[in-house]
Amino acid sequence: SYRQQMHKGLKRPPGPWSYPLIGNMLGRNPHLSLTRMSHKYGDMMQIHIGTKPVLVLSGLNTIKQALVKQGEDFMGRPDLYSFRNIGDGQSLTFSTESGEMWQICRKLVQNALKTFSVSPSPNSSSICLLEEHISKEADYLVKKFQQLMEEKKSFDPYRYVVVSVTNVICAMCFGKRYSHDDQELISIVSLLDGLEDIAASGNPADFIPILQYLPSHSMKKLKEFNDRFLAFLQRSVKEHYKSFYKTSLIQQSQEKRLEPNANIPEEKILNLVNDLVGAGFDTVTTALSWCLMYLLTYPEVQKRIHEEIDENIGRERKPRMSDRIRLPYTEAFIVEMFRHSSFLPFTIPHCTTKDTVLKGYYIPKGLCVFVNQRQVNHDEKLWKDPFIFSPERFLTADRMKINRAETEKVLVFGMGKQRCIGEAIARWEVFLFLTTLLQQLEFSGRAGEKVDMTPQYGLIMKHKRCEHFQVKQHFHMERK
Ligand code: HEM
């Protein structure tokens, strides 16, 4: 057969010896252990998790070859147990579907997001909806942090950032803003605490079937989160139909449904909204939260961002999306946060759609594929001193501009056919939240307290919560 012909003379990728039923031991930090193994076995290595074989890809060129040049072959999603618990198994991101419906949905979401980030706000002729929402939320955070500082002398910003970021994405999907004291939203988002490891690459229950039948506290919590989240969204979507908001995902999808070839069923839309809120709130919150941690750890970096804002924006007006191009150091800081933290150590797992050959190795159809983004971001072959935090590495020699060739080596949003849909929005959000906060505030940690930057492994790696943030008013620096 064709399969055998292809097979003949081609080797399987190398990999470590594994235990018969358990597979390879990845330990508590698979992103680190798999990187170590890749030093020995190379950019393409086959491991076993439980009884299932998994192809682990490292190295920028190898990953590009698979996800971009041979994108069709690698664009599947594996049928994993933990994925089935996300969005009723109907999710765009996590379902195994990659046919026509998936493509229509992906297009729809892309268009909706694009519209949202360029269409003008109904309240102002000059700014877009995204800018308006972020700006409003960031202003709220500034006041909240100042108030917390007065009342408590130090605080954990995470809890407030998560509601603000969720508000931006909810505004986008159904035109609603939640109060920071909204107990329902807070209790739903906090259900996610401690669940980071569930959808992470290498969750044992995905690969050792028997574990699926054991009662699992985490799995119960994930199910509860999903049920409540879906119910919550269902209600919000219903409410939206009564509201007057004109630009939102739901609005868009209804218009699109009038087109004959885009007949998307009602419940599908709910799943899309679920996906977007799910993908949009935790990632952007985590990105901002890492930014704040780096500011605390590197005060001299914070000082340079302050100087850049003072010189280019001043205090008379709010930061705008259009300022981004004029703040290369701030941009470099954000890219370096993405690279150094690599808080999405792996993409969402992929799976091959057919038998294929990658760099001379035979790869069968249906093989689960992990893409090690963190390895790329710390590869000694690509980076000088990869473990040092240095925004300067992304500036041109005269330090006036971003060095695009360098920023393009950073891998955080995946690449190819399934790359993140929300990348542009995510980058805008991080930029505008950060600059609006820093225009007015200076962050520091309570004296004598250590900041723990150790990432905790998960699909999205978080730092430990930090309770001792402090802020003071930032005063415009005098020009010398
Ligand atoms: C997928 C990163 C924010 C929507 C992904 C993937 C990554 C990623 C690595 C998987 C790519 C792959 O499997 O190859 C990030 C990061 C974010 C972020 C680092 C923030 C800093 C967002 C936002 C949205 C979003 C704000 C929505 C508004 C999605 C969706 C997918 C996705 C829908 C699934 C795409 C598909 O399976 O076809 N993202 N993302 N993301 N992201 Fe994001």
Descriptive account of the structure:
The chain is of the alpha+beta class and 480 residues long. It has one domain: Cytochrome p450 (Orthogonal Bundle), CATH 1.10.630. It has 17 helices and 8 strands. It has helices spanning 2-7, 30-41, 60-69, 81-84, 100-118, 129-152, 158-174, 183-191, 204-207, 217-242, 249-257, 266-297, 299-312, 328-341, 373-377, 404-407, 423-440; strands at 44-49, 52-57, 350-351, 356-358, 361-363, 368-371, 441-445, 469-473. Helix 6 packs across helix 17 (423-440) and helix 7 runs antiparallel to helix 12 (266-297). The longest helix is centred in the middle third of the chain and has 32 residues, at 266-297. It is globular, with a radius of gyration of 23 Å. It starts with a helix and ends in a 7-residue tail after the last strand. It binds protoporphyrin IX containing FE (HEM). Protoporphyrin IX containing FE binds next to helix 5, helix 12 and helix 17. One of its GO terms (cellular component) is endoplasmic reticulum membrane. GO terms for molecular function: heme binding; iron ion binding; steroid 17-alpha-monooxygenase activity. It is an enzyme of class 1 (oxidoreductase).
What is the CATH T-level topology?
A: Cytochrome p450
Order of helices and strands: HHEEHHHHHHHHHHHHEEEEHHHEE
Number of strands: 8
Strand order of the largest sheet: 1-2-6-3
- CATH architecture call: Orthogonal Bundle
